[in-house]
Amino acid sequence: MKYETVIGLEVHVQIDTKTKIFCSCSTAFGSPPNENTCPVCLGMPGVLPVLNKRFLESSMKACLATHCTIEPMNRFARKNYFYPDLPKGYQISQMELPLGTKGHINIQIDGVKKTIGLTRIHMEEDAGKLIHGENLGSPGKSYVDFNRTGVPLCEVVSEPDMRSSEEARAYLAELKSILEYAEVSDCNMEEGSFRCDANVSIRPVGQKELGTRTELKNLNSFKFVQKAIEFEVARQTKVLEQGDTVKQETRLYDSDRGETFPMRSKEEAHDYRYFPDPDLVPILVDSAWVEKIRKTIPELPEQKRERFSSSYGIPEYDTGVLTSSKALANYFEECTALFPHPKTISNWVMGDLLRDLKKEGRDITECPVSPAALIELLKLIESGTISGNIAKGVFEEMYQTQNSATSIVEKKGLKQITDSSAIEKIVEEVLQANPSQVEELKGGKEKVLGFLVGQVMKLSKGKANPGMVNKLIKEKIV
Q1: Phi, psi of 140 (to 5 degrees)
Q2: Chain-centre distance of CA 309, in angstroms?
Q3: With 90 as the cut, is the pLDDT of residue 401 above it?
Q4: % of the chain with per-residue pLDDT over 70
Q5: What is the DSSP annotation of 200-249?
Q6: Does residue 32 surpass a pLDDT of 80?
């Protein structure tokens, strides 16, 4: 029997604010344990929460950027459960009246576009963090850090519209890009600003009813999301093929072993005993406020891809890569403003520059070669001062030393030879040394021309002007 995979994702996004959702404690990452706390976020008796307006408006931006409808009235609720890192014994979240509903995100896999629906976007506070003693040299003990308690989150809940791990990865990448472009979150997965829970089930092909799902908790990289889903699909398939039933449960992914394992039985909404938070009044959002927020939304990835394609005339693949992050798109546009040759710039950015950044695990924001420095190099190629091959080596030195292209070329004597008499001597030397290839070229074997040009370039240490070399060889053989 063939099975169809059904995936829905719940993404917790830390909204970029300086203070927490209901108090003035800092949201700074990396502070000493329990430093960023106060009676409000610790839930002491008698305290009252006050909603962070910046968080609310940034959450509205997230809703609008993902085509959600902002509800005219939304309300906070208490989600009751007991865990050591939840000091109040409940989490302030939203249930029946979320901030945003019925949105969508467009993804593309192998040139095929697909729309993934969003059920809702709701606001909530984060819990704290348990630190187990094994990581601190104290086996058998656990410690609680409440710094994250009350950090403002948006939870983005998708419809179960994804049918493969590749679609799930593409959805996460697009959502992350949208939120970064909208400037509502840095989406730093290493710092926990963008975390994913995946609901995975399988069902016989053609069956309308959903299968029993498992929830894969706290996945913090695109790679792990994809691998965890693939393992879970294989595991559930094996369970059903053996005649057993899939248990509804929460599971964790062990990245070292590449496996999921049970954490706890999966709760339903009624297990949390949601009820409206009596300390927080409902939030009323009128259309004027929505339109005011809409006007603050900058150009989003899909719009930027369309503009890059129409304005710069570069291929669809190039636009996808260059707009994958806002910082990379800005880098490219700074370059084109200085040197109006977009495809040339695209080739260098997507090739040499991104290759070196990836090799060192660096982001474009950490790139040691500025747009102006890269364009200085490209102008040296355009003017004929250096060849394209020489430029590759110059770029590598620019990347490592941050020296300018011009200074490197002058210091190493890399200027291209454009003196026809000097090149002619090298051409004659190569032709005399390769008589059989000369005869082949005379006989119409055009491929040999490339060999002879290569020999001239080798002898000139890459400095001879390739165009002149081609011209002189043809003149001398004819």
Answers
A1: 90, -5
A2: 20
A3: yes
A4: 98
A5: EEEEETT--S----EEEEEE-SHHHHHHHHHHHHHHHHHHHHTT-----E
A6: yes
Alpha helix positions (H), 274-412: 287-294, 301-312, 316-322, 326-338, 342-348, 354-360, 371-382, 388-401, 405-412
CB-based burial of residue 131 (10 Å sphere; 0-12 exposed, 13-18 middle, 19+ buried)? middle
Locate CATH 1.10.10.410 in the chain.
Answer: 420-477
**AA identity, residue 316:** E
Q: What are phi and psi of 267, to 5 degrees?
A: -85, 155
| CB-CB contact of 300 with 182 (8 Å) | yes
pLDDT tens for each residue of 121-130: 999 999 999 8
- Phi, psi at residue 98, to the nearest 5°? -75, 170
pTM: 0.85
**What pLDDT score was predicted for residue 260?**
93
CA atoms within 13 A on the CB side of 345: 29
**Domain 420-477 class, CATH top level:** mainly alpha
Q: How far is CA 125 from CA 18, 237, 281, in A?
A: 14, 36, 16
pLDDT at 160 over 70: yes
CA angle 104-11-58, nearest 5°?
A: 75
